[in-house]
Design brief:
heterodimer, A: about 300 residues, MetI-like fold, flat, B: about 350 residues, alpha+beta, OB fold (Dihydrolipoamide Acetyltransferase, E2P), six-stranded mixed β-sheet, 20 strands, about 25% helix
Chain lengths: ~300, ~350
């Protein structure tokens, strides 16, 4: 009270100091003392440096430690080429399967009401909560020689385990949740009104899906595919169990990295690893790009 | 196109959204479904459109069973409450959608589609917005585009869910007038859902008042206002005073006091006395049917709204003309000019 009564006497000066203190107080509310800020930022930078940047540099440093020709030679080994081919093939198969499954699951969950929906959502998340090694073992139990379908498969001369189909199956299982997880919240938020509008205008189910639903979720689909692909190419645990490690035949890139490393072929091992690291970097950039598009989508239908 | 609905029942779990609804809608009629939230009006609209299916009952268009057809085959134009415009399409493509998804045999060629869309955009007076996206439009513009899109398929019936719900007051008023004149122009059987009585009474030829899955009354705006069929309609349409009364031997009692009004055949037993706020006349204290004291007065426009505590303890609000200003503390007598008594 006394302060307020005194202020008019030196109105101009009192006003400006008042404003300045108010601003300082507001800034104080928004930020921590300088020492705390520096300490927190330093911790974050050190952590990122030690756990992310340094390993990344080490991968490339090791890969190029004997020069670029040794690096290229390591990559053009038949074993390396076969691993790259297998990894790309397995990723293509599992990503396209999961694109279809994920779209179907997300469409069913987000646009329809049915009993057992929560059970289905939990099941979709199962591969995330189970150790990949267990996922691989499940396929051994099903398709292995002593497994559930083993005898039937052998009598029909179908090789699933220790061959490409087994690897693709295990990878598909492990990466199943990515597309569905990316789409369910997006589709739930968008609701069913546009689909209902399309149907009442005479569109068939497929027309509604391709002309209305899919264009609305295309960035979400790409986002899910991107993450699914990154995991499919990098999967180690489940694939390791079902692959059988037949050199030049059933080794994927991550498996080959481990084998070469255990054989002290560091350049070759890190050369393959550098490819996976580059995949990670590209994925990160693409992810940032897609996330911006997804956010824009949110904004444009909010107002 | 006439629409007939017979004994329609729709349940969501244990909640009956529609509980035996019968309704006939004449060709070219502009009908309002009016009711509070949860009264079943939107469910009824969605069942007529084919977006929901009843648990029991019949829906027929021109005597033909409509439930045998899917939503896309009913030729019903539906305007959604939040318009549901396709956000990734331009205004032009939104309006063209219904034409583009038609079976190839009857689909117009590109030039035909363009001409029809142009015609519709002219009709809703928004041809200059053809290249915009829905997110770039105002609420009123979206409403009109949604209407143009629904009209593109030359619907036999036009259904609109809360057509004015998401708009601000001024846009509402303009759009109401415009929609009424548009209805005369295109002359298609129309039903719209609203919870706003003023809207229903002003726009529609006939009003269907719904509550808890049942139709309470069907009639013109004047009929439902002047002759409400049930206590609910009296309470919902127009501002009403409600007093709990007892009717015994033709005598109406509020608490212990016998009121000097006729029971009009109501009762016997616990009943409810309804009086419109402006039908409660202010008279000298000793000659009033009811007596009380003014506790609060607000004046706006041509009326003053007074809160009166009756000597029986109930508090009511009345609307009085401003020829004699009321003041807080004034003792007043009240006499209902018109009233209705319904069983409790």
């Amino acid at each position: 009270m006394t302060l307020q009564r005194e202020r008019p006497r030196s109105a101009a000066k009192g006003e400006s100091t008042g404003v300045r203190t108010a601003r300082a107080a507001r800034d104080n509310l928004r930020t921590e003392p300088r020492a705390v800020r520096v300490a927190l930022i330093a911790m974050a930078v050190i952590f990122l440096g030690v756990f992310v940047v340094l390993p990344l540099i080490m991968v490339f440093a090791q890969a190029f430690s004997r020069g670029i020709s040794a690096y290229l030679a390591a990559l053009s080994e038949p074993e390396a080429l076969s691993a790259i081919r297998l990894t790309l093939l397995v990723a293509a198969i599992s990503v396209s399967l999961n694109l279809v499954f994920g779209l179907a699951a997300a469409w069913a969950i987000a646009k329809f009401e049915f009993s057992g929906k929560t059970v289905l959502i939990t099941l979709i998340d199962l591969p995330f909560s189970v150790s990949p090694v267990i996922s691989g073992l499940v396929f051994v139990l099903l398709f292995g020689a002593q497994g559930y379908w083993g005898a039937w498969l052998r009598s029909h001369d179908i090789q699933v385990l220790f061959a490409m189909p087994g690897i693709a199956l295990a990878t598909t299982f492990v990466t199943f949740p990515f597309v569905a997880r990316a789409l369910i919240p997006l589709m739930q938020e968008q609701g069913t009104q546009e689909e209902e509008a399309a149907v009442s205008l005479g569109a068939s189910g497929l027309q509604t899906f391709f002309r209305v639903t899919l264009p609305n979720i295309k960035w979400g689909v790409l986002y899910g595919v991107l993450l699914c692909n990154a995991r499919a190419m990098g999967e180690f645990g489940a694939v390791s169990v079902v692959s059988g490690h037949i050199r030049g035949e059933t080794n994927t890139m991550p498996l080959l990295v481990e084998i070469l490393y255990n054989e002290y072929q560091f350049v070759a091992s890190f050369a393959i690893a550098s490819l996976l690291a580059m995949l990670a970097l590209i994925t990160l950039v693409a992810k940032a790009f897609l996330e911006r598009h997804l956010d824009e989508g949110d904004v444009s239908h909010d107002h | 196109m006439t629409i007939e609905v017979r004994n329609l029942v729709k349940r969501f779990g244990s909640f009956a959204a529609l509980d035996g609804v019968d309704l006939k809608i004449a060709d070219g009629e502009l009908l309002a479904l009016l009711g509070p939230s949860g009264s079943g009006k939107t469910t009824l609209l969605r069942i007529i459109a084919g977006l929901d299916w009843p648990d029991a009952g019949e829906v027929s268009f021109d005597g033909e069973n409509a439930l045998a057809r899917g939503a896309g085959e009913r030729h019903v134009g539906f305007v959604f409450q939040h318009y549901a415009l396709f956000r990734h399409m331009t205004v032009f493509e939104n309006v063209a959608f219904g034409l583009r998804v038609q079976p190839r045999a009857i689909r117009k060629d590109e030039a035909g589609i363009r001409a029809r869309v142009k015609e519709l955009l002219d009709l809703v007076q928004l041809d200059w917005l053809a290249d915009r996206y829905p997110s770039q439009l105002s609420g009123g513009q979206r409403q009109r585009i949604a209407l143009a899109r629904a009209l593109a398929i030359e619907p036999r019936i036009l259904l609109r869910d809360e057509p004015f719900g998401a708009l601000d007051a001024k846009v509402r008023k303009e759009l109401r007038k415009w929609l009424r004149s548009l209805h005369h122009e295109i002359n298609v059987t129309s039903i719209f859902v609203t919870h706003d009585q003023e809207e229903a009474l002003e726009v529609a030829n006939r009003v269907v008042v719904m509550d808890r899955g049942r139709i309470e009354q069907v009639g013109s705006a004047g009929e439902v206002y002047d002759h409400p069929a049930t206590a609910f309609v009296h309470g919902f349409i127009g501002e009403s005073i409600m007093l709990p009364v007892q009717v015994e031997g033709g005598v109406v009692r509020l608490k212990d006091k016998a009121l000097d009004i006729a029971a009009d055949g109501a009762g016997p037993g616990a009943s409810r006395l309804f009086v419109r706020r402006h039908d409660m006349a202010i008279v000298p204290s000793e000659s009033g049917t009811l007596r009380g004291q003014v506790t609060h007065v607000r004046s706006f426009g041509p009326i003053q709204r007074a809160e009166v505590v009756l000597s029986e303890g109930d508090t009511i609000e009345i609307d009085a003309p401003r020829d004699r200003e009321l003041r807080t503390g004034d003792p007043v007598g009240l006499r209902p000019r018109r009233y209705r008594i319904f069983a409790a």
